[in-house]
Amino acid sequence: MRSSHRILLISLLTAGVLGVNTHAPLKATPPFGHPDQPYDRLPGTLQTSHVPWARPLTGGKLAVLFVCPYNNSREVVELAQRLDVNATVIMSAGHTGWSEGYAEGDNATPLQGVEAKSVLERLSRQRLALENHYDAIVIGKLSWQVIPAEVRDAILAHVERGAGLVYLSPNRLKPGWNRREAPDDKDAAFSRLFETTADRRTQERILSALPIDIMPLHPFEDVQAYRPLPAPRHQWQQAGLWLSAKVHGKGRILGIDYLDEIIATRMASSLTPAYQHPRGDHDEVIYDLAHALLARGILGPQIDL
Question: Cα torsion for 286, 281, 94, 148, to the nearest 10°?
């Protein structure tokens, strides 16, 4: 009888384990604050080919907060290899999702459901508290619509008191996992902050030292002149480039718009243009130059590269 009970118990336990979502990996995520948690820290120990454009900096490291999708966060490390920064991160679930992510397979977001929401709320509150001082905040192609209102307000509060804000491909794509739909309405506040063409001096300060003519970028003086190519856009196609700028309190806002938010989710790019070389999946030269462009945007008036 005991043997039969043991077999039955093992069978029931096995069925219980296998009955849980078989597509999800059976592993525990370290709790918030654990040194090995996969959603909060970027070790940066793996070095890749790069040119240290602004590393070291004469005035010391810049304190920069990055807000970007978790699966593009490697780009923060890539920038840190080229620009001398102390990087702090807030990682969202995706370009068009804040805490609502993907739940299956190797691409699943590290946190799900209530845990994802609560951890993001806590991280955002801690890292955007005004006792923290940032030289710049960088938003990596994340839809403005999916960033919670209190997080947007906190970011702008830092800018008001003097921090720079650099927004890569500012957009308001509709919320939802991996969505690529433009909004149905206009947002006057968004337009005021991110849709004012940068003046000539700002454009020259950022672009003049870069070989834009050999980069797969087509600069636009007027964003209204941009006409998207027939869909679906191929990753080899040239990206656009439009700079916006706005003074906000004591700080400045710079938009580096590659006009690529629709394809960015497929290209896993948040800090660089969505582009692949026709002869391979990665163009090291263009990638280096794209980070140089971002570095110049973050440095702003301090530029001496």
Answer: 10
Which pLDDT score is estimated for 143?
94
Instruction: Give the mean model confidence (pLDDT) for residues 104-128.
Output: 76
Taking the C-alpha atoms of residue 288 and residue 93, their distance in angstroms, rounded to an integer, is: 26
Q: Angle between the 284-299 and 200-207 helix axes, to the nearest 10 degrees?
A: 140
Asked whether 251 and 290 are in contact (CB, 8 A), the reply is: no
How is the chain split into domains, by residue range?
A: 54-302
| H or E element at residue 77 | helix 74-80
Query: Using alpha carbons only, what angle is made at residue 48 by residues 43 and 53, rounded to the nearest 5 degrees?
Result: 95
The enclosing H or E element of 225 equals none
Give 4-56 pLDDT, tens digit per residue: 444 433 333 333 333 333 333 334 556 666 666 666 678 778 898 999 999 99
> Of the given ranges (41-50, 194-203, 204-213), which has the lowest mean pLDDT?
41-50
DSSP string, 31-69: PTT-TT-TTT--------S---TB-S-TT--EEEEEEEE
Q: Which two tokens stand for residue 22?
A: 């078989």
- Given a contact cutoff of 8 angstroms between Cβ atoms, the answer to whether 48 and 288 are in contact is no
User: What pTM value is reported for the model?
Assistant: 0.84
In the chain, helix, strand, coil percent, each to 5? 35, 15, 50
Write the burial class of residue 138 (CB in 10 Å: 0-12 exposed, 13-18 middle, 19+ buried). buried
Residue pair 136/298 in contact by the 8 Å Cβ criterion: yes
